[in-house]
Amino acid sequence: MTLPNWIKPGVYGAGIGAVAAIILGFSWGGWVTGGSASEMADNIARDQVLTALVPVCIAMSETDPERVAKLAALDAASAFKRRDAIADAGWATVPGMDKPDRDLAKACEEALKANAS
């Protein structure tokens, strides 16, 4: 079987065009792999859950009978120990959780700081 002469350049052009489309798609087109998309979705979901739980943390701090002492301990703590102070206060342990969430403690610290000013 004899193929016409135009087949070879056409196949090469299609192959090069496919490779170029893949390179451009992943670099400039915003294409991502399934793993990257899943990781981005998990991060967005985690951020949204934290955003929803911060008011719970603030409400727990406002209803805590030992609030003044715990806020004083929070103010006395160094910058990198404040998250632990909020976790120790119990404000970062929402109902249904066994232990405090460090990310929630950080978000709660930022919200408490914003409410104080």
Which terms would index this structure?
single chain
Give a quick summary of the entry.
The chain has 117 residues and is an all-alpha fold. The protein contains 5 helices and no strands. The model has no long low-confidence stretch (mean pLDDT 90).
Overview of the molecule:
With 117 residues, the chain is mainly α. It folds into 2 domains: 31 residues; 83 residues, no CATH class. The protein contains 5 helices and no strands. Helix 2 crosses helix 5. The longest helix has 30 residues. The radius of gyration is 27 Å and the shape is rod-shaped. It starts with 6 loop residues before the first helix and ends with a helix.
Number of helices: 5
H/E element order: HHHHH
- The overall strand count is 0
Instruction: List the quaternary state of the chains.
Output: single chain
Query: Can you tell me the residue ranges where pLDDT is under 50 for at least 5 consecutive residues?
Result: none
Secondary-structure class: mainly alpha
Strand content: under 5%
Q: How would the global form be characterised?
A: rod-shaped
Ordered list of secondary-structure elements with their pairings:
Elements: H1 7-27, H2 34-63, H3 67-76, H4 82-89, H5 102-116
Helix pairs in contact: 2-5, 3-4, 4-5
